[in-house]
Amino acid sequence: MSAPRWMPARVAEAVPSTAHARVLRLAVPGWPGNLPGQHLDVRLTAEDGYQAERSYSIASSGPGELVELAVDEVVDGEVSHYLVRVVEPGDAMEVKGPLGAYFVWDAGDPSPVQLVAGGSGIVPLLAMLRARVAGGVGGPFRLLYSVRSAADAMYRDEIDALASGDIEVTWAYTRAAPDGWGGRVGRLGPTEVAAATWPPDQKPLTYVCGPTGFVEAAADALVAAGHDPLRVRTERFGGR
Amino acid sequence: MAEFSRGFGGRRRDTDVRLPPGQYLTEDFPVLSAGPTPRIPTDEWAFSITTETGERLTWSWAELMALPAEQVTTDIHCVTRWSKLGTSWRGVSLDVLFADVETSLDFAMVHSYGGYTTNVALEDLLDERSWVAFEFDGEPLDPEHGGPARLLVPHLYFWKSAKWVRGIELQERDDPGFWEQNGYHLHGDPWTEERYW
């Protein structure tokens, strides 16, 4: 396999997702397609040649030259600020990818799949959900999605639509619940994680993605509940 | 030269000659691992080096603590593009651990509690280039960061600095470890951006 190269990309669409996040669809001529859960690198170049690179999860998968990202603005983030606040359709950047062969879902695997997302950690997991629905193959899926409030949920309408199909969706709210919400509000604890996920005897494949503290807590809870650590795949956004 | 991105550059970061290409500075200490964090009590911890003859040198935690340790201040560079400058560690040099190892092999597979592996050339481990580190910033190494002990190979991307390290197996060829099988470079020099295959 040869090393991926930087490829020119143009913004085809830029749609607000939440007050601090945007969905970008990039037209990438020659994009080879990607598996659900992979990521790419973005490189931005200023007029004077200054460059910055960051990695982003891909919300789309399969063949085609349109690649979807969903970017949450990081406090003081130079690249995320540009992608969420500045870039417009027609603007140029470069991408390299697809990258990563570990945090991916194989549609040929019939295991039950448990997805656990915190905040913008939904992005690679949404790619898996979309692939599951579009392909009509694979085992049963469950999603546990923790957000600060309903307004902070990326892809909320799409996820609600999935929940009315055969995907089980559990929302968790850490700061504020929507009107009429009967459940508790607060960070997920071991009890909530165990209640909303496949039991260990179902031998699910679990993907956990989000900020470090969230992933640590959720993965610890799954292991404590008896899940095989080797079947709990994690992707941490690094920051606290 | 890449086509420029209209309107980009307003919030650029300070550049620093100590930053390899494509890296940015971070003040906090991000955590990136492929699975749940293993928690290994020091009374169960052991570290071993295995050679081609099957010879196996093993150290318990107490034996590791009895070896001469060094203070190491170094920059670290993650393949996900953050770099942290002037980090402070304490650990035992691999030169100390390899002092009685007889081998003609050139490569090593590093093994971790939890199943992680990474391949490193022996020349990247010896001559004051790597440590088994057990303190960060004067405190015992947190499990999230690989405690009780991790490998520290600061001149390579940080995925080579295996967390929860449990042993080194010498090998004839540079067979790939975990991330190397999943798309990352066999060597991982941040200054030449050896990120991916």
TrEMBL record, chain B:
<feature type="domain" description="Oxidoreductase molybdopterin-binding">
    <location>
        <begin position="35"/>
        <end position="179"/>
    </location>
</feature>
<dbReference type="InterPro" id="IPR000572">
    <property type="entry name" value="OxRdtase_Mopterin-bd_dom"/>
</dbReference>
<protein>
    <submittedName>
        <fullName>Sulfite oxidase-like oxidoreductase</fullName>
    </submittedName>
</protein>
<dbReference type="InterPro" id="IPR036374">
    <property type="entry name" value="OxRdtase_Mopterin-bd_sf"/>
</dbReference>
<dbReference type="Pfam" id="PF00174">
    <property type="entry name" value="Oxidored_molyb"/>
</dbReference>
